[in-house]
């Protein structure tokens, strides 16, 4: 079976695109380069890559729209690589489905670390098989599980199947939203700091300038939980510290 990883580098700056491509080739990826959004979407649909690095400023389609369309057809890892430094750009990129956001200029060493961190997390489509990586290789630890099930009467997290049910109905979460919820639910009643969530869910010791990325994904997670159960108060914000899962709150 062919276990080689594939990547699509979406970058209209040839020097930057070639540098990213060279790094990914060096660490074992097969790489295709797209210079615009139209070509990128076609490549991603055809090649089904494991990783996409995505510039936001493209000559035809804005990178945010490219990311939104990618998420309709693929659960590949997406790292936005952009010269846009405004917090709003970072938040929008993450809200439409990017897994990470790296601001230009950046070092190839940091990009390599970010890529390695992402691949220590299971993608939502991955199924556990006899040949799968051992559970301890996964970033999110879920202590005290029974047959992989954690939560409370109204909210059930199946850590093995990577499914979440509210009042018996399954809700769709992104990979990051699931990992955040699983980590919090796995530590009921414990205040979990934002920095701990970064290390556990993003599986990296690289702490960005702001931990606001955690707040953005948690806001999306809370919205989905609220849509499924309007009165839930499972996830509490502890001001200045982090978050706590309260299973008794409904």
Automatic annotation (TrEMBL):
**DNA-binding region extent:** 147-247
| Keyword set includes rRNA-binding | no
Positions carrying 4-aspartylphosphate are 55
Q: Please name the InterPro entries in this protein's record.
A: CheY-like_superfamily, OmpR/PhoB-type_DNA-bd, Sig_transdc_resp-reg_C-effctor, Sig_transdc_resp-reg_receiver, WalR-like, WH-like_DNA-bd_sf
Identify the SMART domains for this entry. REC (SM00448), Trans_reg_C (SM00862)
Q: Which UniProt keywords apply?
A: DNA-binding, Phosphoprotein, Two-component regulatory system
Q: Does the keyword rRNA-binding apply?
A: no
Kindly give the PANTHER family that the UniProt entry links to this protein: PHOSPHATE REGULON TRANSCRIPTIONAL REGULATORY PROTEIN PHOB (PTHR48111:SF40), REGULATOR OF RPOS (PTHR48111)
The protein here is known as Response regulator transcription factor
The species this protein was found in: Nocardioides baculatus
């Amino acid at each position: 079976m062919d276990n080689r990883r594939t990547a699509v580098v979406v970058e209209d700056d040839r020097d930057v695109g070639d540098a990213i491509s060279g790094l990914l080739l060096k660490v074992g990826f097969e790489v295709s380069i797209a210079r615009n959004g139209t070509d990128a979407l076609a490549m991603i649909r055809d090649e089904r890559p494991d990783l996409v690095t995505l510039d936001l400023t493209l000559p035809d389609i804005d990178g945010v729209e490219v990311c939104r369309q990618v998420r309709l057809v693929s659960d590949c890892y997406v790292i936005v690589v952009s010269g846009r430094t405004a917090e709003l750009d970072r938040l929008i990129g993450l809200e439409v489905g990017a897994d990470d956001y790296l601001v230009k200029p950046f070092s190839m060493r940091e990009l390599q670390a970010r890529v390695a961190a992402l691949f220590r997390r299971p993608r939502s489509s991955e199924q556990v098989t006899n040949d799968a990586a051992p559970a301890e290789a996964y970033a999110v630890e879920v202590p005290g599980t029974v047959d992989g099930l954690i939560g409370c009467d109204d909210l059930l997290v199946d850590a093995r199947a990577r499914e979440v049910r509210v009042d018996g109905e399954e809700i769709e979460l992104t990979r990051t939203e699931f990992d955040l919820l699983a980590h919090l639910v796995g530590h009921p009643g414990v205040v979990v700091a934002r920095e701990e969530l970064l290390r556990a869910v993003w599986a990296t010791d690289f702490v960005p300038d702001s931990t606001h990325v955690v707040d953005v994904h948690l806001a999306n997670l809370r919205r989905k939980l609220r849509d499924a159960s309007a009165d839930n108060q499972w996830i509490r914000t502890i001001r200045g510290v982090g978050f706590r899962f309260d299973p008794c709150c409904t």
